[in-house]
Amino acid sequence: MKSAFPDHIRYSLNRILSLLPVLLFFPLLVHAQEKKNLAAPVLTRIEFLFDASQSMYGRWQSGTKIEVARELMTRLLDSMRYISNVELALRVYGHQKQFPPQDCDDSKLEVPFSKGNISRIQQVLKTIVPKGTTPIAASLELCANDFPSGPGRNIIILITDGIEECNGDLCAVSAALQKKGVFLKPFIIGVGLDPSLKKSFDCAGRYFDASNEITFRQALNVVIAQALNATTFQVNLLDQYGNPTETNVNMTFYDHTSGEMKYNFIHTLNAKGNPDTLVLDPLPVYDIVVHTIPPVRKDSVVLTPGKHTTTGIECPQGYLLIKFDGNAEYLKPAVIIRRAGTMKTLNIQELNYSRKYLTGKYDLEILTLPRIYLEDVEIGQSKTTTLQIPRPGMVTWVSNNQGYGSIYTEEKSGLMWICNLDENLTKETIVLQPGKYKVVYRPKNSRESIYTIEKDFSVVSGESSIVILN
Length: 470
Known about the structure:
The strands form eight sheets. Strands 5-4-1-6-7-8 form a six-stranded mixed beta sheet, with helices on both faces. A four-stranded antiparallel beta sheet has the order 11-10-13-14, with no helix packed on it. The longest helix is centred in the middle third of the chain and has 16 residues, at 213-228. The protein is an alpha/beta fold. It has four domains: 7-228, von Willebrand factor, type A domain (Rossmann fold, 3-Layer(aba) Sandwich), CATH 3.40.50; 231-314, Immunoglobulin-like (Sandwich), CATH 2.60.40; 317-389, Immunoglobulin-like; 393-468, Sandwich (Immunoglobulin-like). The protein contains eight helices and 29 strands.
């Protein structure tokens, strides 16, 4: 069939489109050589959802809409023949049943997903005859069954010259399938659509307005480039002064729509002291969780395809070090760390180890005997807050018989329980903080409460003592 384009336009298109394979393939080669963040190329599945409703026979510049779309699609597909890790499919609607009457089930997967099926798609495009109506929402919903199972990036490119005509809710269908992770946010190319209709597609996907043949070609090229190529991204972890000095912490990237985890990166500053550059898929909207203590989250981060994107996340941090006065290396009581005024445990920290936290105030529960509670401990930017607690002592209780007993401190409100003695032992050593204590004890073989023994004793820091329970 003779081309619908005049010779001078056809020549220009040939010149421009002949460069497209190089433009598309070059970034993939660069990324493969860098091996930076993307260890292996990810399989990309692209399904073209093609409008062949009756209105596609409408005149549009050098020919009918179907002729223009067919020719530009054919040239685009030619440019994709040598791009690896891509599978294509073609679903068409509005081409099987004549309108009227309206048939809202007129949608068919003409070419299933596979590699090396470009010629088959081109052949089908040549034979399509626009006939029917425009069931866009129903067709998009059917696309969910077209994608094979298994890992990969699933992408829809909808090419249409009209809006939904079968009372389907395109936006709801698109949102539901994105939420399930069936495919990423669709690309929608409006062929000669009235600008007032653009709003009806904005909620369903990334809309490109092809008001003429040149912008249609440009839209196709841009969409394919975005679908196939990664882009660069920089995360600045900001200190309290707004400087990107925080680093060496894991960042998890989630798909904002589906919640699927996409990437994990340990943040790094390069040799020049600048945050490292990441290479990411530009299509998802990301939620980023920075795993500081406590974690920090930034939602709905949008990358600009083909451009370096930078985002800042406030993560001011300082250090906390807790240790005994003097030497007590044999003791390793844990410390429960909570945000001041809350009961949620953020971390369990060992003594004599420095740990990093977001700046602010924290409540500490040190699991000594008795426990030590410290409130409103402040962590400052890039500073180490050091807390020293008294070195404990040791007390050994000895008895002629096994028995039941407990250790207490005497407070104004009464006895405060510290711990129980082991009822199966006659000798036990317990590490206690310095202070005054009371032990209450009764031998097992004494069956009357009158045989209960009470003894007061003291614990001195760094010293040992013995309590005889007879």
